Fold:
Amino acid sequence: MKAGRWKVRFSYLQQQFARPDGILKDIRRHLKGCQFTLGPDVERFEKSFAAMIGTRHAVGVGSGTDALKLALKAAGVGYGDEVITAANTFIATVGAICETGARPVLVDVKPYFTIDPAKIESAITSKTKAILPVHLTGEAADMGPIMEIARRRNLAVVEDACQAILAKVDGKTAGTFGLAAGYSLHPLKNLNVWGDAGIIVTSSDEAAARLRLLRNHGLSSRDEVEILGHNSRLDSIQAIVGNWLIKQVHSITRKRIGHAAMYDKAFAGMSDHIRIPPRRPNVRRVYHLYIIEVRKRDELYAYLLKRGVEAKIHYPIPLHLQKGLSPFGYKAGDFPETERQAKCILTLPADQHLSDRQVHYTIGVIREFYKNH
Ligand SMILES: *Cc1c(COP(=O)(O)O)cnc(C)c1O
Structure:
C-alpha cells in the first residue's frame, strides 16, 4: 500500500513539518552568522532542555547513540567493564555500550517492557561498572529499586531516555535519577529534528565538563587536548529545529497520552483478545510507542495493514537472538519474558497528529477482526 493510501499512517512527519517557515527563517539568519559548529543556537537549546527536564546541565551531541556512549564514558566505563541493560531494547542501547569497549550484559524485563530490578543482582560481577536502564516505549523503568541496587553495589547509573522525554516515576522525571541520561532527537522520536541529533542531561558539574570535552575531540581550548574525545557535537541547524520543537513537547506529550487513554478504554472491554500492559499508578507514560499484547498477532497485524492501518512491531526479533549479537553467546530461552513479548506485541499509531476519528477507525478494525476470527 502506498504512503498516501493509509487511512491511519504511522509516520506523521509530513504533518509535523508542514509549516516550516519560522524554522527556515532562523536557518537563513544562521547562514549570515556562519557559526556552523556549536554556537548560540546549540547553547540555547541545551539551556531549554535542561530546564525542561530539571537538570543542571544538558550537552548536545550527534545522536542518541552517542549520548549514551559519551554518558557511559563520563561515568568511567571503558574496555573490560560490563554494563547491565534490558534485553528488550533498541539495538542502539547495546551498540553504545560496545562502543565504549565494555561488554553488554542483558537482563530480562517486566511485562511493561523495562528492566526487571529483581534480576539485576544476579547479573552483577566483579567487572560490572554501570547499569543502563531503558525507559522503553515511554514507560519509566523502576528507578527506586534500581538506584538502591546501584548505591549498595557501588555502580554508576546512566539512563536511556531516548523514548521517554517527560516520563515520570514516583513524581520524578525520567532521566534525573542516574549520573546522566541520553536522549535522541531522531525524526522518529517525540522531540524530533531534521536528522540525527542527541542530548545528554546531568546535574553533575564534573560530568558535564567531561561531556563537553568528550563531544569535541577532548579539546579544552583551540590548541589543548585534555582527554581523548570524539567528534560528536549537536549540529547547529538541528539545534535551530530543536528550539522550535521544544516549545511543543508538552502538548505533543498530552496528545499522545490522550490517544493512549482512548485505546485503553476501548481495549479494557476486550480482555479475551487484548492485554493492556500493567499501568503502574506511580508512572507517567509518554507513549513514544503505544503497545498492546494481542492474540493471533500476526493475523491481526496483516489484517490491520490490509484495512489501511499502519501498525508496527517493536521489536519482532529480540536482540539476544540477532545474528549480530552472536559473539555474546546468548540463546533462545535466556530471556523468556522478552521472547514472550516479541511474539504477541503490536504497536498502534498514537502520535500527536492523529485524529480521534483515526483512533476510532483503528479500534473498529480490531473489533471487526476478532468478531470474524
Ligand atoms: C532511538 C533510540 C536510541 C538511539 O538514538 P539515535 O538517535 O537513533 O542514535 C537509543 N535507545 C533507544 C531505546 C532508542 O529508541
